[in-house]
Amino acid sequence: MSITAFIIISLIKSVAVVFVLLTAVAYSVWLERKVSAHIQNRWGPTRVGPFGLLQPLADGVKFIFKEDLTQPYVYKPLYIAAPIIAVVFAISSIAVIPFGTWVTVGPWGTTFMQITDLNIGLLVVLGITSMGVYGVALAGWASNSKYSLLGGLRASAQMISYEVSLGLSLVGVLIMSGSLSLREIVDAQGGRFWGFIPRWNIFHGQTIAFFIYLISAYAETNRTPFDLPEAESELVAGYHTEYSAMKFAMFFMAEYANMVTVACLATLLFLGGWHGPIFGPPILQALMPVFWFCLKVFFFMFLYVWVRWTLPRFRYDQLMAFGWKVLLPLAVANIVVTALIVALRAQYPGFLSFL
Amino acid sequence: MLHLILFLFFGAVCVAGAVNLLVQSHPINSALSLIAVMAALAGEYLLLGAEFVAAVQVIVYAGAIMVLFVITIMLLNAGKEERTKGSRVAILLGVPGLLIGAVLVAWTLLFRSNTTMVAIGAEPGSPKAIARLLFHDFLLPFEVTSVLILIAIMGAVVLASRPEAVAKTAGERSETTPELVGAGRNRG
Question: Exposure winner among A87, A208, A238, B135, fewest CB in 10 A?
């Protein structure tokens, strides 16, 4: 592939992926409102378009035309920078997420369904999400209001606490696949047990790790039952109390984009990524992997909403105690057991071969 | 060529961030400049072929340790520092000293060192190569270092714990009143 073709294809891929991500973010908000409404025996948005499907567009227009208030008591440079930091880091981690196998682009050869494949892909995602904390922390501090400050402090303390168990829950998967590249991790999950159970990591000894990851991911994205940073009954709206119009919308977008990223990672690492039954004519066969990937991500998004409108909020000390005293030891124990089994299997090839 | 341009760019960002760190009078701006320095350093590591070190630099230093710095500044509500004139000795001795030091280091590196250039990627930089070094070739030093860090963590916990908690672990339960113990348990 020549350098020009490479640049053009990368550009097209980047624009397409960001467009799809932002649309997914907008419709996650619609999904949240619709599902929450049905859980509470209401209708949710119905007025704009069929089933309220154009509601995200109306919301976007409203955010753009609302008055953008900047209170006189805020620390202006950081007050403006905080939502930008949050949304930039939330969106940029999508760059290393693979969506499917590969496609043939006319005469220029083939290209992966992914903006770029890095051999440290997983570490890049973790690094970018760990930088996203600053958006929230600085928003809380720069707003110069006690509710914002408390929300920002809670958010940053919670995010760095749960990042530890989140990172450690992934180590088991890494030991089993022997790579940090997301594409190779997915490739390692192909095939089936006994012909019908897929060889995904969740069925392949990493079940506990999956649940640790799921719980930590809820805490990382500040979702119920861990939404202490924006607990309405205590902190008004937490770190974004002082924000309005498009600046508030940026925090909103960052939160939902983070949810999509976390759901993508869960799909890739534990649910076998784009693996699934493939059949039909060639054009369908090319599109099926992407369909399975999107279906799994949608499942996680739905689970997010479902959990949010089902469970009450934790108390703050319960949150910290659970993270450090339950999740962290469990994650470490999972690493030790996985490493032992993998090492023993390398020594004695038949050891626990049914796992 | 592109490599060199990027390397110089990240180097310039590093130096600019470090200078800004000293010039800024507000602690939070200084902390943010330090984050910029660390992120730029990660870029330099990446250009040198040390991708794992680059990722760890961002995750650990920029993403975890600096968050603690920022939280501390937020919690203490540290305000603007007052600008002092600075001592005359520092300017009289410091500036020429800095210049002489820079020239000496540059001269040694350019003419006096017998190091040879290696291609990017020739030295171990991938996660696999580093894991082999850490857990195979240098296993004992690595494990000893982790025990050392464990001791440091335990020391920090002992120093930070409240006096009654220390007394309780030392077996002097009689000194703490039952109410205090009960309150501690409830907070648990």
Answer: B135
